Amino acid sequence: MHRTRTGMAAAVCAVLLALTTAACTEEDRAKVGDIAASATAAAASKMGEVKDGVNATGDVKAGPTKTDGDRTVAEVTATNPGDRTADYTVMVNFRDGEGGLLDSVVLDIGGVEPGKSGTGTARSNRTLPGETTADIARALRH
C-alpha cells in the first residue's frame, strides 16, 4: 500500500510540478527525479546490449510529441547514409517544457536500406504531464 501511495504522490506531484514548482515538497520532487533517473538507467542498459554499433545520432531525428491514450509518443526517423542495410537502436528522452527530463525509452528501427529512411514510434513508459518534447539521446547503427 505504501508503494502505491508513493507512486501516486509522485505522479500527482509531476502534474503539479508542470503547473507550479511551489506545489511539491523537495521529497516529492526527488521522487519524480528518481522515476526519470530509473527510466534513463534502464534505457542506457538496453543501449549497452547492442554489439558492434556505431554512433548514428546524426542519422536520427525525433518528431513532435503527441498523446496516444495515456502515453506520450513521438515518431522517430532514421536515415541510412551507408551502403548496406542497417538496423538502428535509439534512446529517446522525453522532456518537459523547461527541458527537464521526464522519461527515457529505447526503440529499434530495423532494416533501413541504404539512402532510405525508416521510422519507429517512441512511447513513454508512463503518463507524462504537460507539454513535452522528444530528443535523441543516443543512436547506434548496427
Automatic annotation (TrEMBL):
Organism: Streptomyces lateritius
Top-level taxon of origin: Bacteria
Protein name (record): Lipoprotein
Signal peptide extent: 1-25
Keywords: Signal
